[in-house]
Amino acid sequence: GQQHHHSSQYRNMALQNSSQAAPAYFQALLDRGQKRAPSDEPQLQLGLQDIARKVRNLGKGFTDARAHYLLSASGVNTSDALRDLEELSGAKAAPAPSAEPIISSGVKEDLAQRYQSDFQKMVDSHIKRAHDDFDKMIEERLHGVDWDAHRQRIYEHFGLKKPQNIDEQGGAESTYGQSGFGRSSRRPRPNNAASKSFGMSGMSRSVIGSVGQRGVRSSVFGDVAEKVPADGIRPAPEDNLLRKKQKEYAGKVTDLNAARREFKNYPVLKHFAEVEQWPSNEDTSMLVHAFKALVDITKESDTAETLTDKGAIRERTYAKAYLDDSRDSEEAVQIRKQILNGSRSYLESFFREQLIATVKKNPREANMGGTPDPLSHVKGYVRVRAARKELGPDAELLQEINGDYCWAVIFYLLRSGQYEQAMNYVNANIAAFRQIDRQFTKYLKAYVDSSERRLPADIQTQINNEYSQRQRLAPEDSIDPYRMMCYKVIGRCDIGRRSLDNITNDMMDWLWLQFALAREYNRFDEYAHEAFNLEDVRASIKEIGERYFGAGSEIANAPTTLFFMQILAGLFEKAVADLYPHNYLSAVHFAIGLDFYGLLRVSNINNSDDLLTYTTRQQPQIAFGSMIGLYTRDFRTSEATWAVDYLSLICLNADLDGDIGKAQKELCYQALTELALETREFAQLLGDIKADGSRIPGAIENRLALIKLQGNEFLKHITLVAARTAQEQGRTTDAALLYHLSEDYSKVLAVVNEALSLALTTDLGDTPARLLPLKPRNITDQNNQDAALQQASLSLTSIDDPVQLAQDIMTLYKNDGTWTKAKIEDKQMHSCEILLLLAATRRELEAGRWAPTLDYIHKTDLLPTDPEARGNISFIRSKAQNFEMLPQSVARVMGHLMVWTVIACSNQVERLSTQGFENAGTKQLIKNTVYIAKDVMVFAGLIKYKLPGRVWETIARVGQDLEAYRVQ
Question: Coil, helix or strand for 400?
Answer without folding.
Answer: strand
